[in-house]
Design goal:
With about 120 residues, the chain is mainly β. About 15% of the residues lie in helices and about 55% in strands. The protein contains 1 helix and 12 strands. Strand 10 and strand 11 form a beta hairpin. The chain starts with a helix and ends with a strand.
């Protein structure tokens, strides 16, 4: 998965799992704040990646990134989720611990951490 896709998925999953409006994401790998916003209302998601001027939206089962023209599946189970990035053919799993999302990217065999900023 690309770094921006991982951050987008972390924000989307947190929005669905915690029911909070996301106003930013801190990427611990790069040590930077990303301008990612997301909000889930029921089964629908709307989001925007301000760093890439990219809209993303979808449902609690699939997210669409308009700039990449790509779909990422999302299956939520309590405070955990998993899915598949169709653009890069890679699986991921994640867990939400308060405002922190820990995501494991199976393709890169690495863990990534994101602190979610809520509004």
């Amino acid at each position: 998965m690309s770094p921006h896709t991982r951050a987008m998925v972390a924000a989307a999953a947190h929005a669905f799992i915690c029911g909070r409006k996301i106003v930013g994401v801190h990427d611990h790998e790069f040590g930077k704040d990303m301008r990612i916003a997301a909000e889930a209302q029921g089964e629908r998601l709307q989001g925007f990646d301000g760093d890439r001027a990219a809209k993303f939206d979808g449902s609690s089962s699939e997210i669409y990134d308009a700039v990449d023209d790509a779909f990422v599946s999302l299956e939520i189970d309590g405070l955990k989720a998993h899915g598949y990035d169709r653009r890069t053919s890679s699986h991921y799993t994640l867990s939400v611990l308060g405002r922190v999302v820990q995501l494991y990217d199976h393709a890169s065999r690495s863990w990534f951490a994101y602190t979610i900023q809520v509004g």
